[in-house]
């Protein structure tokens, strides 16, 4: 029996966006199910729910043409964006999401760590606590310092870019409005070019819902 992937998603969730980018770039076929994460989903296992509500993102991997609430079908249900992306990496062989060399792999992990431990918490504090928007500039400088002279986070497109793109796309438009220093300075030229490269890819255009994300909301706890 063939297997299929269903991505339980929300257009607002940046971590879901990371997973969807990885799916498209890997060439793995999937179905997308938009979920109201405030409603209980009775068909989900307890470990992918919180108080009966589905954690986002979640993927369901099961028999083609069946439905998650069918008790006769055994489903693999995974939540946590990094776990899901690792699962996708292991599924694909035609479009690798990881760089080929150990050195590039090390650089990729450093870039991801800078995004998740530096950039995202700083921006979340700006959004949720009203911190000064200029606090994000050192995080941008840290990312820019890791970028190669051309291309993506490690040259070729990789998992690092799947994780970076959703957060940058929810951040940079606000900086253009609020920070003259970012908007007019050449200091961030390499970072700005990276941002354009990310958001120009077909996978990004297919998965970013600008109308829904007009109000910027980040949820680092979804990682």
UniProtKB/TrEMBL annotation:
It comes from the Eukaryota. Coiled coil: none annotated. GO terms for cellular component: cytoplasm. PANTHER family: PTHR43968, S-TRANSFERASE, PUTATIVE (AFU_ORTHOLOGUE AFUA_2G00590)-RELATED. This is GST N-terminal domain-containing protein. It comes from Candolleomyces eurysporus.
